């Protein structure tokens, strides 16, 4: 290698090193601000207004506490078993923190804050006079893959278009047309329960949640696609697995680029794609 080439290689390496040295503090400062200083500023901002909540923890926010509270609530049966107070079980973290911080408090999904509001007057004011200031949250990418572009995740003109397309399906006349389909599904459910009770001497114990899910899926399948639930059972089962995966991902903190560094679960996605393509 001649002197000019050696000089150029050295100069290029030096330029790259200097550029990296200049960019690294800037990137580090941006990351530190996004993951620490900005959440702390937001905590102080809301605290000055009397809104508090569980403390922010670096990167994970309140996710660990939320998962622990949910796991503790679901690890034991509801007491009493006939209670209709489902909130302490389905939203254990909300039930727990509301008793500590009141009806309005701040929680953290990673570095993303969420303001929890339960005061009826404040909710009414938000919906009627301040709705434009409260946009829907950006869904987790895995949850977005499951839900697709629906009303829950769309914004602006796209949301208005989808809302206008779906609105006729919920007109009273159209909803009344679903009554016979739902009635047949519920009657078939009651008949199956009666047959099971007769076969067991007049009394039987059933998992009501599983049966209610099946009858809802059957009513939707018949009313929407004109097919029986049995023909779409595999699709519903795969969708249930996808929902479980999405729920698991939703409880984790989103780190950009992390998904490409971990092994993927391809079995359910492949089966779902194959079924959808063959339909």
UniProtKB/TrEMBL annotation:
UniProt cross-references to Pfam families, sorted A to Z: p450
GO cellular component entries: membrane
Ribosomal protein keyword on record: no
InterPro entries in the cross-refs: Cyt_P450, Cyt_P450_sf, Cytochrome_P450_Monooxygen
Keywords from the UniProt entry: Heme, Iron, Membrane, Metal-binding, Monooxygenase, Oxidoreductase, Transmembrane, Transmembrane helix
Keyword Transmembrane helix found: yes
Gene3D superfamilies the record matches: Cytochrome P450
GO MF entry, a single one: monooxygenase activity
Localization: Membrane
GO biological process entries: brassinosteroid homeostasis; brassinosteroid metabolic process
Family recorded in the similarity comment: Belongs to the cytochrome P450 family.
The protein's name: Cytochrome P450
């Amino acid at each position: 290698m001649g002197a000019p080439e050696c000089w150029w290689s050295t100069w290029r390496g030096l330029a790259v090193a200097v550029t990296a040295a200049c960019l690294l503090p800037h990137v580090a400062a941006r990351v530190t601000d996004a993951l620490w200083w900005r959440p702390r500023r937001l905590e102080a901002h809301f605290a000055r207004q009397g809104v508090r909540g569980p403390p922010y923890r670096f990167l994970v926010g309140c996710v660990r506490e939320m998962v622990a509270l949910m796991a503790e609530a679901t690890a034991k049966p509801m007491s009493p078993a006939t209670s209709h107070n489902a909130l302490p079980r389905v939203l254990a973290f909300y039930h727990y923190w509301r008793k500590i911080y009141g009806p309005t408090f701040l929680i953290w999904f990673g570095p993303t804050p969420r303001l929890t509001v339960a005061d009826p007057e404040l909710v009414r004011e938000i919906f009627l006079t301040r709705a434009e200031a409260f946009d829907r949250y950006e869904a987790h990418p895995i949850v977005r893959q499951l839900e697709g572009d629906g009303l829950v995740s769309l914004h602006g003109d796209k949301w208005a278009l989808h809302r206008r397309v779906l609105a006729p399906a919920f007109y009273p006349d159209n909803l009344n047309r679903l009554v016979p389909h739902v009635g047949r599904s519920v009657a078939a459910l009651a008949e199956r329960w009666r047959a099971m009770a007769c076969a067991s001497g007049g009394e039987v114990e059933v998992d009501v949640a599983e049966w209610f899910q099946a009858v809802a899926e059957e009513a939707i399948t018949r009313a929407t696609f004109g097919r029986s639930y049995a023909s779409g059972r595999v699709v519903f089962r795969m969708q249930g697995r996808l929902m479980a995966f999405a729920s698991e991902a939703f409880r984790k903190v989103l780190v950009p680029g992390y998904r490409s560094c971990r092994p993927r679960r391809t079995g359910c996605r492949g089966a779902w794609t194959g079924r959808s393509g063959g339909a």
